[in-house]
Amino acid sequence: MARTYGRFLYTIAYRLTGDPDDAQDLVQETLLRVRKGLRTYRPGSMEGWLSRIVTNAFLDDVRRRRRRPVASLGDAPEGVFGSVPAADEAMMADALPSDIQQALLRVPEEFRVAVVLSDVVGLSYQQISEALGTPLGTVRSRIHRGRALLREALS
Amino acid sequence: MSGVPPAGGRPGASGADGHLGDGLSSLLDGELSSAEMAAAQRHLDGCSTCADELDEVERTRQLLRGLDPPKPPEGFVPGLLLRHRRLTFFVAAVSMIAGVVAALVFMLISPREDVTPPVNRFERIHATSTPSPDPITEMAPAGVAPSTVP
User: Fold this and answer.
1) pLDDT of residue A116
2) Taking CB atoms and an 8 Å cutoff, what residues of chain A touch B67?
3) pLDDT < 50 regions, chain B
4) Containing domain of residue B34, as a range?
5) Which residues in chain B are contacts of A120 at CB distance < 8 A?
6) pLDDT tens-digit profile of A24-68?
């Protein structure tokens, strides 16, 4: 599992967290959850199932940190969680333009997750709805709003 | 709203302000039905606001879609495997230790019954019988004369 889907999970985790260390921790947490939940896997899209686990692990961590305010949240603009990686870190760990990744981190998590699942993973709206346990209309709205926020962050 | 039908089941396909709204993303993502797509196209033909926004959304969409996957740090996958093996070993060790501890605790706290042999009863039973001078003779089967016993 780690060998086959490690990079796939790392891609999602890095897009969501923007930090190589946080991404590795998130992948590790995801694999733990996969190990516990392997019996519940039903034949279907393995990528969709893993995407659900990794995004839920990410959102659980976000909620946990929100419940327990820490100093790192104090500097985040408008409650946006997540540290913007230093330029050298982003260049080292990410072949993508760092400004896009940094802009993505400025998109609130609920919107960021929807955009990443759509534009990075390539899931359909229905799959995203199932992965997040969110109504289809909400997914539709979050993807469009998330893209608009990303555009604003880039401009 | 000229174009995309209100479509009771797909409220996200049209914006409340008469423009396509999040229907633009749905259109680009292929998430509209044929009828909704045709209606959206008709709207776009007459609405420069939505047409311009469609271009913006598409550019933003392609930014992420066109990115290469991030390169994991050196030794990422071997590190995952190593941590997985360590975790498996740790879980097995903890399970074994927990089992041993549980067994010891059970042995220590479980109530022990004192065994009391019914010595008095046996004494009473055997007190009425005359002790045999020769245990071998006493054990001889019925019908066998004591004299035949070597």
Assistant:
1) 95
2) 95-97, 100, 120
3) 1-13
4) 11-65
5) 64-65, 67
6) 999 999 988 888 877 666 767 788 889 999 999 999 999 988 877
Who has greater pLDDT, A73 or A16? A16
Question: A–B: how many Cβ contacts below 8 A?
Answer: 106
Q: Which domains does chain A have, with CATH numbers?
A: 2-154 (1.10.10.10)
B142: DSSP letter: T
Q: Which residues of A touch B71 (CB under 8 A)?
A: 93-95
CB contact under 8 Å between A143 and B22, yes or no, is: yes
B37 in a structural domain: yes
Task: Decide if B52 is inside a domain.
Answer: yes
pLDDT score at A70: 53
Question: What does the pLDDT look like over B109-149, one tens digit per residue?
Answer: 877 667 777 888 888 877 765 655 666 656 656 655 555 55
Query: Are residues A24 and B12, on separate chains, in Cβ contact within 8 Å?
Result: no
What is the spatial distance between Cα A137 and Cα A150, in angstroms, rounded to a whole number? 20
Q: How far apart are CA B53 and CA A18, in angstroms?
A: 28
Compute the distance between CA of residue B30 and CA of residue B138 in angstroms, rounded to an integer: 103
User: How far is residue A117's CA from residue B65's CA, in Å, rounded to a whole number?
Assistant: 11
Q: Which amino acid is at B104?
A: L
**What's the domain count of chain B?**
1
User: Of A7, A31, A100, which is closest to B63 when you measure between CB atoms?
Assistant: A100
Identify which of A22, A29, A27 has the alpha carbon closest to the alpha carbon of residue A4.
A27
